[in-house]
Write the structure tokens for this entry.
Amino acid sequence: MIKLQIRHEHIRPFPKILRENIFSIIDYKIKGSSILDIFAGSGVCCIESLHKGARKASMIEINKDIAKKLYNTAHKKKVINYIKIYSGNVSKMIVKLHDLGNYYDIIFVDPPYNIRLKREFWKRLNTILCRDYTIIYRSNVYDRPSETGEVVIKRDGFFHIYRE
């Protein structure tokens, strides 16, 4: 497991035990995949995915200071050539990714606790999904974006894994 040292008051730690559980579930899918981490925070999910064989990764971080730290971390971890970091409004960045022709196999969605994702977010996200996608969604409330999906882990909020 990768250990990162990005510290910021707006980053909610992603506990190691939960990461281990999630990666054990999706491990078979990572090699050669494209990864997107929305509300990237520490960026650990993207960086760990690249170390496990993902082909490329993108991160969207709403906080510009954190995005700068993500760039420095990606450089230190020697994955800067395989990763793109976007900063700004998440919905606008998803539209930009679509316009650039980017599609993703695995998407991590880990919004801050004070943000509740609306239906429009999920519709936009649908435009950048590969055919055989997996979404890992972490929230502090049980608000599944669709009727399909499975609660995988219940600790420090809810985790949902959606697969097509």
